[in-house]
Each structure stands twice: as structure tokens, then as C-alpha cells.
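Slide 14.
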Amino acid sequence: MVKPLAFKGEKKAKKRKAAPTNENSLKERMAPDPANGAQEDDSWVTADVSSDISGPVVIVLPSAKPTCIACDATGKVFASELENMVDGDPATAEPHEVRQVWIANRTAGTDNICFKGHHQRYLSCDNIGGFSARSEAMSPEETFLCIASPSSPGTFKIQTMREKFISVTDDGNDIRGDTETSSFSTTFRIRMQARFKPKLKANKELKAKEKISKKELEDAVGRKLEDDEVRKLKRARVEGDYHEKLLDVRVKGKHDKYS
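Slide 15: predicted structure.
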């Protein structure tokens, strides 16, 4: 069974049976699956490009005191103070409660992204730039375009479907979706779980393919292997021609036996 997400500083509670809730559902989605052997997949990293944004995310605001976009169970959207950071750096921020977390999904066939809260409602921006999270279904008001900032790597301008930018006041008290021009107040960081970042996922898959012991390779070939043969077969597992190279090594072994 997938274990629920544990936030930093949260005390472990005694096990007890409880009815499923939306909050528990979100925690389960954020928790790594032990069956996949992903010990570090619950770590948080910064999205670099729009295509990275997927799964649980924290939208970090450019406020004087580090905050993020959050919502309560009634759908009220507000700036929530971030507590889990290294030396107060918002680029290292992690959530300490589920109200700070949104599930990011891309709408089919587009670059638009929607954000679903812990209470299974979507983040929405109305025609006057006000925010709420009460919609059960997606419409243009619940979709956003995340544009990577070329002058500030690891940050984004988030645009509504009315082509306005999301912004926040310096004190973090007012989040708006009707700003006409981009500036520091419209520059956001998006923190996400590492296991959903495509580049990191690809690297993990490559490492998983490389993880085969010399003994396993020798069992597959049927004889002792030289170090260069082991490297050749491990590389073939990554490049996708393992079975062809395995056959080559087997044939070479037979030729060496009778030469």
C-alpha cells in the first residue's frame, strides 16, 4: 500500500483506520511507490521549462516573505507562508501542508496547464482577475500558460487565458490575475516532485537499465566475462541492443573455445 506523504517536521501518528478523504488522496498521490524502488522520488526540485510541470507542485510567489499560492477547503485562494527551506531560500522550498500543493496537468493537445487543489477543485481566474478554487470542471478560466523566463532561469510568467499575468503584491497579501505587463511581481518559481520531472525520470530509467551484476551477465552468456565484455553488455542495455550484443558475446566465446 502506498504510504501517505510525510511533511518535514510532522510527527508520526499512530496507525488507525480512517475513511478516505480528498486530503489523504492527495498525500497518496504525492508519496513514492516502494515497489518501484524510488527512495528519493519524494524530493522536491525546481521546474526549468514548461514541459517539466506535472504532478504535485508548489507555486512560489515573488513576495518579500517567501509564500506560495494555497487554498482552503472552501476554495478561498490565499498566500501561504513557506516554512521548509534551506537558509530561507525560496528556490529550495517544500510544502509543509497539503493546502500548498496543486496537481498540475496539461490539457490534451495544448501547452495549457490546470492546477487541481487538495479538495479536488481547480484553480480559476475570473474576468476581473480574482482567484478561487471552487470549479469541479475545467474551462478556459481554469487553464494557464507557464512561460519560462529567459532572463531568470528556473522561473516562469504565468498567464491566464485572457493573456493577463498572475502577480502578487510585495507583502504577498493580494494575488491577482489581471496584470498587463511582466515584471518581478509576475515572476514565479514552480517546485515539483523529482519523480515527475522528465529529465530526472529518464536518468533514473537509464540507471535502472544499467543495474545488472557481472554474475547475472555471466549467467546469461554461460561463461566468465572479461571486464570489457561486461561494459559492452551494460552499455547495450541502455542503448537498446542488448540481445544482439549478448548473442555476439556468446558466439565469440564459442569461437575462442575451439580456436
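Speaker note: The CA atoms of residues 47 and 53 lie 6 Å apart.
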